[in-house]
Amino acid sequence: MPEKMQMTGLASSEADGSFDSPTSTCLDRTRQSPRGFTALELIIVIALVAILMAVAIPWYLNYQDQQRLRVALSQVEADLRNAQVKSKSTSTPYDVVFNPNAPNNTYYSIYRHPESGLQTLVATVPIPGNVVISNITYQGNEPNTITYYQPVFTKETDGGTITLRSPNGLAGRVVIAMITGRVATSIP
User: Fold this and answer.
1) More confident residue, 53 or 159
2) Who wins on pLDDT, 160 or 35?
3) Cβ contacts of 108 within 8 Å, gap of 6 or more
4) CATH code for 39-186?
5) Domain extents for the chain?
6) Helix/strand/coil (H, E, C) string of the chain?
7) CB atoms within 10 A of CB 161
8) CB atoms within 10 A of CB 71
9) Average pLDDT of 168-174?
10) Choice between 44 and 142, residue whose per-residue pLDDT is larger
11) Residue 162 burial (10 A CB sphere; 0-12, 13-18, 19+)
12) What pLDDT shows up at residue 136?
């Protein structure tokens, strides 16, 4: 029986745990099951996530504010152009009235007014996204009013600038050119 032990040679040293081969210690280390993450690794990951969130959240809120303002500016621009088109197609003046001193200053009104009769309210339009009218500069006869006349050359179209402000203070403008009534928007 002792001969058999010597032939295998490894059985006795494995049985008492004293086998010290360089390859066996490497294999033993890889056979150990992972125990999880260390506290340092978790702290590093949490710190990286916090840094990313500190950069991403303000950027996203600013982006959201810009989009609210863009939607509101586009709506005002579209309604001004629509009033201009209706004025041309019906040969009737159309007014778009902005009132920055109104309690909520979050809406404007569109009127049709034949020169021989009273104004007729076409629509009262709310401005979306909690955007408010903050300032109006105008170059016309009626305060806070943009009037489109048809035909254009009988009377000049009123011009001006309407400034809208988002909830976080970002401002944008709708500019109406005098005479032609061309409408353009701008965000700084």
Assistant:
1) 53
2) 160
3) 76, 79, 96, 97, 98, 99, 124, 125, 127, 133
4) 3.55.40.10
5) 39-186
6) CHHHHHHHCCHHHHHHCCCCCHHHHHHHHHHCCCCCCCHHHHHHHHHHHHHHHHHHHHHHHHHHHHHHHHHHHHHHHHHHHHHHHHHHHHCCCEEEEECCCCCCCCEEEEEECCCCCCCEEEEEEECCCCCEEEEEEEECCCCCEEEECCCCCCCCECEEEEEEECCCCCEEEEEECCECCCEEEECC
7) 14
8) 14
9) 91
10) 44
11) buried
12) 84
Residue 23 makes CB contacts below 8 A (sequence gap 6+) with: none
For 99-114, what is the mean pLDDT? Answer: 81
| Interatomic CA distance for residues 43 and 84, integer angstroms | 61
For all residues of the chain together, what is the average pLDDT? 79
CA gap 113, 117 in Å, rounded: 7
Segment 11-56, tens digit of pLDDT: 444 555 555 555 555 555 555 666 788 999 999 999 999 999 999 9
Start-to-end Cα distance in the chain = 95
